[in-house]
Design goal:
The structure is a homodimer of 474-residue chains.
Chain A: H1 16-30, E1 34-35, H2 38-43, E2 58-61, H3 65-78, E3 82-85, E4 102-105, E5 112-116, E6 121-125, H4 130-137, E7 142-143, H5 154-159, H6 167-170, H7 173-176, E8 177-183, E9 189-193, H8 205-209, E10 218-225, E11 227-228, E12 232-239, H9 243-255, E13 260-266, H10 268-277, E14 287-294, H11 296-312, E15 319-320, H12 324-335, H13 337-342, E16 349-350, E17 353-356, H14 362-375, E18 382-385, E19 390-393, E20 396-397, H15 402-421, H16 440-444, H17 447-458
Parallel strand pairs in A: 2-4, 3-4
Antiparallel strand pairs in A: 1-2, 5-6, 6-10, 7-11, 8-9, 8-10, 12-14, 12-15, 13-14, 13-18, 16-20, 17-19, 18-19
Helix pairs in contact in A: 1-3, 9-11, 9-14, 14-15
EC number (chains A, B): 1.1.2.4
Pfam families (chains A, B): FAD-oxidase_C, FAD_binding_4
GO molecular function (chains A, B): D-lactate dehydrogenase (cytochrome) activity; D-lactate dehydrogenase (NAD+) activity; FAD binding
């Protein structure tokens, strides 16, 4: 379970002199957009992760693809690691600097370069956040659907292959990115994919870079698919007697091809957290938050069909979020699930983890996970993008207690072992980062060697985000 | 436009002795599943391509992944190229053997290994064809949507990132493949992806192998997404005054999010061909073949909305294919477009090519292409998966005439130049093979170097399908 495949750490790391000389040049070249201040360095590694902070040696705010290229080439020449940084909302230690190096902050690359309304696509710089893009699109009748909880940068979302509540209908970043511009480990700038909806012209470099977590290239621009805002959006809440009932209703709806836009499971612990944090008053039972998109008649028909299915599985009648503001409140509560969970045991740390299994295994996998939570006496709410078979568990841990940490580690190991036993994956949308390196071989076997061969071919010096996905030095 | 980036041809090709020794071993090991007969060798390179046939030295019918592994490892040791073969329906010379070698025929690996109805997925061997799979699924209420014209093998469809008429609604092979088993250039067997609907666990090797045209691995098994057969399927034909009208109606429908299942454009030349070949009696004008999937009310609503849009763009009323047999006839005619086109000028060869552009550029790109056809005095029907911006042109050429061949080459060069000018791709679904190598750098620039670096990392001896995608030796 814990076999580890490692790309060697930097074979020939920067000497202190080379580092000083490089940083002196960066300081002269970029002025106050380059900084070695401790506060800034700490902030660039201190994300939502529960892993220990490993600050970079310096931070550079890049403003153009050419600057990124220049910086990466200079870092490569000096053997200094480069850690791309977007909004800082990643969960698995992606932004840590275990070998030191430069945090390359792309948040100022936040221009929306083009919106092609007729083609339902747009071009953005990597630092644009998902909310910023949707704000910009507001008057076009279009929207960008991928919505991780945080207001992440689109570059970071691509790098971690993020998804969110809409994936069951609109796909993940794997599907959303039509093409991208990236800076490779030697500073070369490549453009992949394009604006055509499909292509068979060569290897799918776009999909290779999406999910590569900054280890193959620094994504600086993206071409993204957009969707028309549906004529009618209906949202509501359905409460179930059991987790199985909620999962089975989900399976039945998917099987009949009901085009659910969102179907989110909250266990009774998470509902309790949301009630307190987001001022809801839901029954503390397994609950589905749902959204239906379509024409007016179409959306209403979906609701009727789903209501019938839910009732057959012990679900209560759908509680409507009729007004747009009620709907916003509902989804804000869902997006705030992390903070609501944290609130259930103040003063502790929250370990946000996720797995994804075939939908038919979801009820069993969630149920066994809850039994393990009880057995270990943890507080660990569960929320899930159940239309994808993806769920999150968030153990609340006192990290100063070795005993609690040990229980948490056991829990995580078993959670992933269970997901893999059900032919699932160790992470549906958070990525590997540092936190899941130890599970990758169990999931992909020799496939990891193929990944490492690609990493070595494209980044032979292991400059780009070293110690993520592959390296063992946790 | 014609810059070429080449992976070197086999540096150290098999000596005649090594080849004889290998083939003697294969003959002893595989009996009559291994053959050097001229007829069989010719047949394994003589596909629907217009490129000249380059037969392999021998053919092996493999029956298991382990046999594929054994054969590839032995070929690698002897420096003998391996050309994977499925149904032989590829269009760009993928199955040619410019450096000789072994055609590895997977058509006997045609077992359907599992159908998971609850998860809407299945596992198949690579030699299963799309029609075989759908026949097998008949009683499950599920179907597999990707449908290139030919009854291709699913392994070959994955290898060329194929699509077809349903892609606008159900996606291409890029989307349909959840995971796969492949034999690498050294004979190692890897399994990529999995059965979870999404994953962020490492590089997307599935998507890297899909579309790699047998140059990175021999795909032997696939896990594929399935879909529920919709409650209601409505199909019909809409005739337009102009190509622009048909394209504009398509754009408008997509923009409002109408979930079109199929929207296929035929120009008046192709309609003439289909009328003759498939015994239809359609007006010889630009025509859309359409299909709508949904609940009964939902599908009817889509039809009404589309009819209104079409009328606004000069389209006639929708002619219904009301009975299932009428619908089958319509789509069979569409799938037979290749043969119908060929029939327009008997005795000539048909060059089947495809490009794909952003949908907003479709009308202009098709119109300019038709002007070029007229200028060059070619007969070249056009059919298109216009919901994706993808269209096919099929010049009918007397290949014994140097003059005609020269005009055809000019036409193809300009077609692709035009598609790239509109930010499109040199191939939407046929692949690069040998026929489009010369356009790849114009489309992807330095990206081609990245592809070559990956190819060299995973197949350093250039054993797997050499001379496809990259090599220059046409």
């Amino acid at each position: 379970m814990t076999t580890v495949s490692a790309v060697e750490a930097l074979g020939d790391p920067a000497s202190p002199e080379a580092l000083e000389s490089l940083f002196a040049r960066f300081s002269a070249r970029f002025g106050d957009r380059f900084s070695r201040s401790e506060a800034l360095r700490e902030q660039h590694a201190n994300t939502l992760t529960w892993l220990k902070v490993q600050a970079p040696d310096a931070v550079l705010f890049a403003e153009t693809t050419e600057e990124v290229s220049e910086a990466v080439a200079a870092c490569a020449a000096a053997r200094v690691p480069v850690i791309p940084f977007g909004a800082g909302s990643s969960l698995e230690g992606h932004l840590n600097a275990p070998f030191g190096g430069l945090s390359l902050d792309l948040s100022r690359m936040n221009a929306i370069l083009a919106v092609h309304e007729n083609d339902l696509d747009c071009a953005v710089q990597a630092g644009v956040t998902r909310k910023q893009l949707n704000e910009h699109l507001r008057d076009t009748g279009l929207f960008f659907p991928v919505d991780p909880g945080a207001d992440a940068s689109l570059g970071g979302m691509a790098a971690t292959r993020a998804s969110g509540t809409n994936a069951v209908r609109y796909g993940t970043m794997r599907d959303a990115v039509l093409g991208l511009t990236a800076v490779l480990a030697d500073g070369r700038i490549v453009t992949t994919g394009g604006r055509a909806r499909k292509s068979s012209a060569g290897y799918d470099l776009t999909r290779l870079l999406v999910g590569s977590e900054g280890t193959l290239g620094v994504i600086t621009e993206l071409t993204l698919k957009l969707f028309g805002i549906p004529e009618t959006i209906l949202a509501g809440v359905s409460t179930f007697q059991t987790l199985e009932g909620a999962c089975n209703a989900t399976i039945a709806a998917l099987q009949m091809g009901l085009p659910l836009a969102r179907i989110e499971l909250l266990d009774e612990v998470q509902v309790r957290g949301c009630n307190a944090y987001s001022k809801l008053s839901l029954p503390e039972q397994p609950t589905l938050f749902l959204e239906f998109h379509g024409s007016e008649a179409g959306a209403r028909e979906q609701v009727e069909i789903f209501s019938e299915i839910a009732q057959g599985e012990g679900g209560g009648a759908l509680e409507w979020a009729a007004r747009p503001e009620d709907r916003s409140k509902l989804w804000q509560a869902r997006h705030d699930a992390y903070w609501a969970a944290k609130n259930l045991r103040p003063g502790t740390d929250l370990i946000a983890t996720d797995v994804c299994v075939p939908i038919s295994a979801l009820a069993a996998c969630v149920t066994e996970t809850k039994q393990d939570i009880e057995r270990l006496d943890l507080i660990a709410p569960i929320v899930g993008h159940v239309g994808d078979g993806n769920f999150h568990v968030m153990p609340l841990i006192d990290m100063s207690s070795a005993h609690e940490m040990e229980r948490a580690r056991q829990f995580l190991d078993r959670l992933i072992e269970r997901a893999l036993r059900y032919e699932g994956t160790c992470t549906g949308e958070h990525g590997v980062g540092q936190g899941k390196i130890r599970y990758l071989v169990a999931e992909h076997g020799e496939g990891v060697d193929v990944m490492v061969a690609i990493k070595k071919a494209l980044d032979p010096l292991n400059i780009l985000n070293p110690g993520k996905i592959f390296a063992a030095d946790l």
